[in-house]
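Exercise 7.
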Amino acid sequence: MNVYQAIAAVMAELSKEGISKDRKNQQQGYAFRGIDDMYNALSPILAKNGLCVLPRVLARETIERQNKNGGALFYTTVEVEFDFVSAEDGSKHTVKTFGEAMDSGDKSTNKAMSAAYKYAVMQAFAIPTEGDNDADAQTHEVAPKATQKPVQPKQEKPKADNPFEDPAKPAGDPDAVVDDLCERIRVCRTGDDLDALRSAPEFLTAFKSLPPSHKAMIREAGKAREQGIAAGN
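Solution. The predicted structure, written as tokens, is:
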């Protein structure tokens, strides 16, 4: 089918130079490539090779969060399919991606759509990038399990109200709370995500319940994530 020939032709042109990170996040200081950069680089190449990219939204979800100053943030996730269609014979290949974004106004859906498109074309055309967003680039050190305690008679345990607690560990176990909070910090992709997590009521409640030594571990995890975001990781 001609659609695959067209995709390969676009990929060949993009492989020569890729799309560089010419923009800079002013808050965190890391470089990135904007959606306008993607459009400007791709549009003439797609037109030249007779390839259309047509979006179709399958699902959208928006929830309200809070930034560190108490203001509203709208967090939107979209599930989008993109049809890569050959203008020559109408053959197509469909790519599905997810996009997520935050905004304090009415642009969160637009930003999420842009993110979905950006990563759909980056992966479909294998666009060369600067930096490393590979999961293998990070190694997480896992703390060893605590020494097992003598087996106690099994008792029915009520479900914990705190979502940060591990049901397999005693309620309020500081190590379990730290593990959960640190993992939530590690998966934050942007500074806004990190701010939203830190201001979440569940996070604050769990953090306040910790002894000083464990609070220090959370603060260190937050600083390390801030540095990772600033470096574009």
